[in-house]
Amino acid sequence: MSEKPRHAPLIQFPIVDDELVIGDMPLTRLAEQVGQTPFYAYDREAMSRRVRDLREVLPADISLHYAMKANPMPAVVDHMASLVDGLDVASLGELRVALGSGMDPAEISFAGPGKRDQELSAAVAAGITVNLESPGELERIAVAGERLGITPRVAVRVNPDFELKSSGMKMSGGPKPFGIDAEQVPAALARIGELGLHFRGFHIFSGSQNLKAESLIEAQDASFELAYRLADDAPAPIEVLNIGGGFGIPYFPGEQRLDLTPVSENLAQRLDTCRSRLGDSEVVIELGRYLVGEAGVYVCRVIDRKISRGQTYLVCDGGLHHHLAASGNFGQVIRKNYPVVKADAVNDGPRETVSVVGPLCTPLDLLADRMELGTAGPGDLIAVLQSGAYGYTASPHLFLSQPAAVEVLV
Ligand SMILES: *Cc1c(COP(=O)(O)O)cnc(C)c1O
């Protein structure tokens, strides 16, 4: 038999007696504690460890922000708020959770296209920084500030004028709904000055889920250069330069972990130059997936086991309505299996090749396509790893009126 491509090692959780241990508890016991399946479990210590390890490799004076859209569960956000230097929100709903975490509003920023007037007013009232995505938004936030008698704090999100093509992935450039085109930024900066807004700096986000150090370095270098160029027209000193993030995590067989050492070495050099070019600006990296993605599992229970024309199906109580990404329908071009295991037979015992499907009446509801798992049947727990980011809140819960999942932080 040919060698099957292997998943990257599941190093984020201990395995005791061949069972996943999440938050110090064997998963079958945790399922009893949660009291229902399906559920998502996020491991507090795994998040803490990730931030600690990251800070160890990154230059000390880089600020680390958590991009909440990866996992906005309030308990997760509260925990992340205790670990990072700031939070990035993308809606009023996320802003409320961010403020509830106790994070200093001065360290909260709000990006995303189509911010409504109430969202802009809420941001101004809260005293957070709004990353402007268009000239229209700039005018509307000025009106909000005027009405409230509060000076809005704004940064300009830039849609870069360079195009980065690394490993086939186009990361920025061209027409985008996000950010103000670099060539329009000087006019926006002049307008910020005219309107007397508090200018904080630039936000340049060039991509997501990147596992290649070289392309991250390329993006960061280009972002610094762009910021220097644009800074000439700034109405005030650059207090904050947010250079995005995009650090990826491995999901699929054959993917290698991101090597952060060269990224970090390059950043250290860049920070030196930045100090001479921009003064003592705070340089921010914003990360979602990288901080929480490996700290979560989605757990569902086998309801039925059937064999159809030689292929074995484990039909579970959970599926794409809770975990769209694992089904392969959240932006993936080619469907590949997430790492999926039988919760208490991770590596050993009898194995068989099965497809794990959910209860929805659509062929898209597929959690594992012909994968080798520990032999399982009704009542057994199936765990989908790498599920701490873009899981529950990135899924169509209402589809087919199935029961909701619960989320726990342990
Ligand atoms: C989605 C998003 C992030 C988080 O991306 P990850 O790949 O989860 O790290 C950060 N910043 C902005 C502006 C985003 O839109």
Taken together, the total number of domains comes to 2
Kindly report the name of the CATH homologous superfamily of the largest domain: Alanine racemase
The CATH level-2 architecture of the largest domain is identified as Alpha-Beta Barrel
Q: Can you give the helix content as a percent range?
A: 25-40%
CATH class of the largest domain: Alpha Beta
Helix-strand category: alpha/beta
Structural account:
- The protein has 410 residues and is of the alpha/beta class.
- The chain folds into 2 domains: 15-42 and 294-409, Lyase, Ornithine Decarboxylase, Chain A, domain 1; 72-287, TIM Barrel (Alpha-Beta Barrel).
- Helix content is 29%, strand content 26%.
- The protein is built from 11 helices and 22 strands.
- The chain has helices at residues 27-34, 44-57, 74-81, 92-100, 117-126, 135-148, 185-195, 213-231, 260-278, 289-292, 324-327, and strands spanning 15-16, 19-22, 25-26, 39-42, 62-67, 86-89, 108-110, 129-132, 153-159, 165-166, 169-170, 180-181, 198-203, 240-245, 282-287, 296-308, 311-316, 340-342, 351-357, 366-374, 381-384, 406-409.
- Strands 4, 16, 17, 18, 19, 20, 21 and 22 form an 8-stranded mixed sheet that branches. Strands 5-6-7-8-9-13-14-15 form an 8-stranded parallel barrel, surrounded by 6 helices.
- β8, α6 and β9 form a beta-alpha-beta unit.
- α5 (117-126) crosses α6 and α8 runs parallel beside α9 (260-278).
- The radius of gyration is 23 Å and the shape is elongated.
- The two termini are 40 Å apart.
- Bound molecules: pyridoxal-5'-phosphate.
